[in-house]
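TA notes, week 10

Several of you asked for a full example with nothing omitted. So below is the full record: structure tokens for the whole chain, then the designed sequence directly under it. When grading your own attempts, check the secondary structure regions first.
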């Protein structure tokens, strides 16, 4: 398996990968593939942090980290949003998602980013250092259960003293 940066020529293939991957996901709104396109066009896209997993020339996974913000009284604190992460059904439970997360975190930290937030399943994401964001003083602006909004510090204490809201999705 190779993990590398996505290319514009693969955008339609990635769209299909994300769509099919989320058809068998535990939680989905059916629009994750469109969310990928929206994230690429909203000005917060970081091409170096949009990665694919490839095996024998076939795309089997995808992850994006894009800029987002924690806002408090007009102050904005930059963080990264992990969304979405997709793995083709036949490649799940083989470490593809874990490898995509670890590589994206390594690259993000190397670029100077210090934290990541997401909306997801705590049972999966806690193993990567994610904690319930509300316990760090970060709330979501939409009606998403607190336990599903999580944050991870790439640098120790990166979120210390930062509180506010995020609309990361």
């Amino acid at each position: 398996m190779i993990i590398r940066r996505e290319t514009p020529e693969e955008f339609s293939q990635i769209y299909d990968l994300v769509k099919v991957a989320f058809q068998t996901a535990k939680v989905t709104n059916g629009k994750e593939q469109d969310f990928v396109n929206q994230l690429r066009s909203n000005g917060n896209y970081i091409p170096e942090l949009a990665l694919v997993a490839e095996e024998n020339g076939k795309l089997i996974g995808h992850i994006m980290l894009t800029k987002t913000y924690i806002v408090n009284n007009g102050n904005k604190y930059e963080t990264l949003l992990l969304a979405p992460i997709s793995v083709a059904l036949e490649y799940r439970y083989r470490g593809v998602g874990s490898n995509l997360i670890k590589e994206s975190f390594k690259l993000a930290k190397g670029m100077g980013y210090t934290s990541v937030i997401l909306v997801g399943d705590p049972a999966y994401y806690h193993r990567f250092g994610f904690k319930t964001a509300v316990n760090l003083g970060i709330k979501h602006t939409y009606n998403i259960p607190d336990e599903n909004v999580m944050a991870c510090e790439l640098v120790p204490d990166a979120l210390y003293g930062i509180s506010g809201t995020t609309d990361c999705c």
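The chain has one domain: 2-166. Use that as a sanity check on your answer.
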